[in-house]
Fold this sequence. Notes:
With 77 residues, this protein is mostly helical. The chain has helices spanning 2-7, 19-34, 39-68.
Amino acid sequence: MIYELHALGMKPKSKLYQPDHWRGRAQATRKKAAALVDGKAKDRLLKIAFEYDKLAQRALVWRMRKNEDDTWPEQEL
């Protein structure tokens, strides 16, 4: 799964692989949600923030795996 993004041409140094990028987006989204009164819109933003948190976790896992194995397979089946 982690290698799929690389196979699609994404570079490992991309900010998409940095957990802090996703945590920042989650935090900004929660801040926007806090400013809303509408329950539905607020709930949607909180769900988006939750998804950003999951992306941050995936980026962290990718980083740990990358440190364990610094080689990229040419094709993952």
